[in-house]
Design a protein that fits this description.
Length: about 230
């Protein structure tokens, strides 16, 4: 990541840290009860993601979309590809049309800001890093999970020093400003649904700050254009 990006992310986190005290992994029933709607629909979402995966070589790598993420996305010769359907409230109709289940869910839940399929190719390792902004939470729904010889999930999400091996259909809600890393130990593609969800329960001044930051990011997405996102 660029030095400017890292410095801005650290400064922003300090502002939120003064008023937010929570663990890295959160109870979805409390912080995002709508998660159950995604979990109930996961077989349909999986089928839509598998159809998208048929075009995997055409799906952009994460560092093609965000150059600032090259250090974690282009760190090896394996691919982390992202099929973005919505980014901070900006909807990409052509991509959403390929997942009508998600299109309907995202439209019905305004606090869901971003919706993406994440494809982690065999052997891919995403090194430890921090998200920049505590005004959102990350939803993580496993759609297609390779298995090890012992039957355990073969892809690992490590958050704040703890490893999570989630099975298909399992959902996790977490604060991605905590250090996290991901790796795929298998020779198959791991597919998950990633959601960026507006953090609820903030004091009024942090709600205003979050809204301003979300607006700036949305503007940045528009200025960059959508060529890499669709």
């Amino acid at each position: 990541m660029s030095i400017a990006y890292d410095l801005a992310a650290r400064a922003l986190r300090r502002v939120y840290d003064r008023r937010i005290d929570c663990e890295a992994v959160l109870d979805a029933d409390v912080w995002f009860p709508e998660a159950e709607r995604f979990v109930r629909a996961w077989p349909r979402i999986r089928d839509e993601a598998l159809a998208v995966a048929e075009d995997l070589p055409r799906i952009p790598r994460f560092h093609d979309i965000m150059r600032e993420q090259a250090a974690i996305s282009a760190n090896d010769d394996r691919d982390w590809r992202m099929f973005i359907m919505q980014a901070y409230g900006i909807r990409f109709a052509r991509n959403l049309a390929r997942s009508p289940t998600l299109e309907a869910l995202a439209r019905a839940i305004p606090d869901v800001l971003s919706v993406s399929f994440s494809f982690l190719t065999p052997g891919k390792y995403i090194p430890p890093h921090h998200g920049p902004f505590r005004g959102i939470l990350r939803g993580y729904l496993v759609l297609s999970m390779p298995r090890r010889a012992d039957g355990a999930p073969a892809a690992v999400l490590k958050v704040d020093g703890r490893e999570y091996r989630l099975a298909e259909g399992q959902f996790m809600l977490w604060d991605d400003t905590y250090e996290h890393a991901v790796w795929n130990e298998s020779d198959e593609v791991r597919i998950v649904l990633l959601l960026d969800i507006r953090r609820r329960g903030l004091p009024w001044h942090l709600r205003l700050l979050s809204s301003a930051i979300i607006g700036l990011v949305r503007l940045g997405v528009r200025l960059r254009g959508i060529e890499l996102l669709t």
